[in-house]
Amino acid sequence: MGKPPILVGAVIYDPKVALIWETIKNFFEAHECPMDYVFYSNYRLQVDALLAGHIHIAWNSPLAWVDAQRRSSGHCRAIAMRDTDRDRVTHILARKESGVRQLADLRGKTVATGAIDSPQATLLPLHLLRKQGLTQGRDFTVRRFDVLVGKHGDHIGGEREALESLRKAESDACAVLDLNWATWQADGTADPNRLAVLVTTAPYDHCNFTVLDRFPPEEERRWTRALFEMRYDNPAHREMMDMEGLKAWLPGRTTGYAALTEAAAQQRFFEEEGA
Amino acid sequence: MLFFQVRFCGLPSSPRGMCMTDYTWTVRVERVGEQEAKVFSRNHVFVVGEQASFRETDPHPSAVEYLLGALGGDLLRGFQIQAARQRVAVDALEVMLSGRLNNPLSHLGVVGEAGHPGLESIQGTFYVSADADRSALEEMWRAALERSPLFNTLRRSVELSLELRVML
Fold first, then answer.
1. What is the pTM of this model?
2. What is the ipTM metric for this complex?
3. Which domains does chain B carry?
């Protein structure tokens, strides 16, 4: 019997995501750092499992990170993240011909967002509008696209439906993650000649690998050492890295979650969720 | 090694039906690698890969694909027998089948998922080009379904939706 594997939790909504984790598991086995994965249907269950010690590491959405910190009274560490998790922004888009050219023009209008628990497509953009003096319900109406709630906006369906609603003039603005905006312009889903960015959030960070403070530092070093050996220029690693959307794994940092922590508190997200 | 067995029922009318003989087909399945199993069936050998695969390509078909393939083969062969009985010349037969699990995430053991990993539905189209009118072909199709072992097994547990399409 070798060392017991380090258990890593992940939320999946598509069986194909399991293939990524199978590749990651094989990679860690090959680097003599056995790991196994446990899949969850939603982040609430995954954070429960992390706090209960059922898993050692959780691949957390930004909102799951905020939740884990909140429920552990700040006793979590972010040990690694993708290069693409750093400095993301959300754009609020409007149709060029609609006459909505500045934030004040959104008064009395409808803003389409993603799922209720999507940091990038709901919580953060609504927080930005609030800080700019626009309150949901009073100054504008939210048209929310609750696709796969519980998965914190991992599934882009809600965001895409919000964009579609803007395109069809059923809404006056919509919120999208910068990466999706770039992809949708490139693949023709969004027409940059007809849509314009009205406002952009400050940069924030996305997912991270979260552990509890009590996770042994030597185990953490062993695991992150193996993780950071993954190289985009190695063809054996590249396919998985492409599927997971990164070019390099980086150490975790927690400076990019302040706005989301504030947004969740201000929107009483966890109270509404009953947590 | 011969695995095909014949066994007599003992009673003229068994609870399973009116058969006088009860045939049992036996296969032996052996693990031959991390992700494959070899099936020995009478004088045949075939390899099964994953239970259900989500990859684009694999070295071997999955168990789910074998099941769909087996149903397709059963239907095709059954139709061919009916056509031969009616002395109808068949130019071409083809069947396209798609199966959906109730919840593939349950198969992957995702904590918190509802549902089950079993097949929920199978949809298919049976294409036939033959020297007969539509009503004759429909009658052959009906008879093929009626006598199909796999169709009559699966339809009891899976939502089966099969369509006959006559091609000119």
1. 0.87
2. 0.84
3. 1-48 (no CATH), 50-166 (3.30.300.20)
